[in-house]
Design goal:
heterodimer; A: about 160 residues; mainly alpha
């Protein structure tokens, strides 16, 4: 398979959940345009590696691992930029109450990296257990226990924030 | 029947248990009020988090074009390198070693010009974003 056929096949696998991918990227980067860039970059990077993709593995989990790396790269770059403020440039103040997804992402932000990652992928990316195992490179049995503990941690965290 | 582990309650909620184990959980939920209450608490949290997370999603503009993945830039760079090599190796033979320095400058200029041509050509092509999906 080569050329347009590869592109068509890749697109067929990718397209159904691009909106979820954008939401996942947004939950990490907190900016719609930065999320768009990360998804675009992941789409290209995934296509570059698509020839090596093993069709027996869940594509969505494989691709979200790429997206996660693109988001973390973008986050590092934005933190470097934020550490070098431009003269006279102040970040825009938020207008109105934050949407509920931001409160959820904030709650996840305060969890351990393991719990944060699995919850972001589960809720914002809507990955199945098999896809989570692929994206996080962990056994499926670990997904079940980690997700359960992560949910409890998040519930506790959000309860604390409500007080 | 093995007792229901707390993590299995999560997996049942997610539809990730085997059909047989799912039936066992259903039976346990029907007869154990404490387990039922825990399940309902989990289910309510899960539903509210799923709704909140879905609101973050949007259709991003994404382009996956063969041309982007094998950019036309590298043959142009190869051409620029060839021009530079010719200028460095051949020009001094015709115009004398004294002008070799000028040859080097010309080579640098050739590379810059080639880069500018490639750049302008890509902008004119404007293959990105040939979008699928959109805000």
């Amino acid at each position: 398979m080569s050329g347009p056929r590869v592109e068509t096949e890749y697109w067929r696998l990718l397209e159904p959940w691009l909106a979820r991918a954008a939401g996942y990227a947004r939950s990490i980067l907190r900016d719609r345009h930065a999320a768009e860039d990360a998804v675009q970059q992941a789409a290209l990077r995934g296509f570059e590696r698509f020839a090596d993709f093993d069709a027996a593995r869940p594509f969505k989990g494989w691709w979200f691992a790429i997206l996660r790396n693109c988001c973390l790269d973008a986050l590092r770059r934005s933190r470097v930029r934020a550490a070098i403020p431009l003269d006279g440039h102040e970040p825009a103040a938020p207008v109105g109450p934050a949407p509920e997804w931001e409160a959820l992402a904030d709650g996840m932000e305060r969890l351990s990296p393991e719990h944060r990652e699995i919850l972001r992928l589960r809720y914002f990316g809507e990955l199945s257990y098999r896809e989570l195992a692929e994206a996080l490179a962990i056994p499926p049995g670990t997904v079940m226990s980690r997700l359960h503990l992560a949910r409890h941690s998040l519930a506790e965290q959000l309860r604390k924030e409500e007080r | 029947m093995n007792p229901i582990e707390p993590a299995e309650l999560s997996a049942y909620l997610d539809g990730e248990l085997s059909p047989r184990r799912a039936r066992e959980v259903e039976s346990a939920l029907a007869t154990d009020p404490a387990l039922r209450a825990e399940y309902e608490r989990l289910a309510a949290l899960d539903a509210s988090w799923r709704d909140a997370a879905r609101a973050a999603g949007f259709d991003p503009p994404v382009a996956v074009e063969e041309a982007q993945l094998t950019p036309g830039a590298w043959p142009a760079w190869a051409l620029a390198g060839l021009v530079a090599l010719l200028v460095i190796r051949i020009v001094p033979k015709f115009i004398g070693p004294a002008l070799a320095g000028a040859g080097l400058h010309a080579a640098a200029l050739a590379v810059i010009l080639a880069w500018a041509v490639v750049r302008l050509g890509r902008e004119a092509d404007d293959t990105y974003p040939a979008t699928r999906g959109g805000p």
